[in-house]
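Sanity check

After download, print the first record. It should look like this:
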Amino acid sequence: MGLKSLSKCLVASALAALSAPALAQDRSGLNIEEFATGERGGVAQFNLAQQLYAMGVKNQEALLVVTAARLASGVQMTEVGHEKETRPGGGDAADIEADDAAAPVDAAAMLAMARDLAGEDENMIGMIEDIEATGARGRIGGASRTLSRLAAGAVDVWKVPFFGESYAELGISGDGDTALGIDVTDESGNAVNCPPPRHDEFYCDFVPKWNGFFYVTVSNKGRVSNSYYFLTN
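Expected structure tokens:
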């Protein structure tokens, strides 16, 4: 066979392969790789910072709050807008409006609290100033957040895409005013086995089998609104 004939044959074979139906991927069952693992990133670090901060405030321990601030400031957060549906609740409108000024605790708020707890402690003040001076240097990336204000009794349903065979992180960081109920399902409605939230703090990680959407349902169990960050990697 000549070179020209061979080229025609290869082109025909390629076109036939492209036009043939692709082998269907098995998408039955839960879209989670049961034994897959990955390296935790910015969402996990921010979640840990929230836990340390809450412990530090409860015990009035400046060092814990400073440590939490260092962890939180070490995460480069990107503001994004995920697709969301909100279902109204039966909360009191006056309570909701009065509570809208509240916000989840971020690195800046942690540092402000650390200063209050540090008092005249020069070592603590030095650590705080070091964190403030460091700024964005050395931050880990790959984390995003979306601020949501959820009325009393209301429900947010987030729709989030994740790549198959890639590590996925989800988190919730609330303002502390109310308890939040959180459920995660894949696009077929199968429940993802996530740890229960701690009041209004939540973290879950997994590896999807294939590219797909996941739905995160956040319900406000309290009588006033809750401002929270929805976190993803």
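If your output differs, re-run the checksum step. Summary of this record's structure: The first helix runs from residue 3 to 19.
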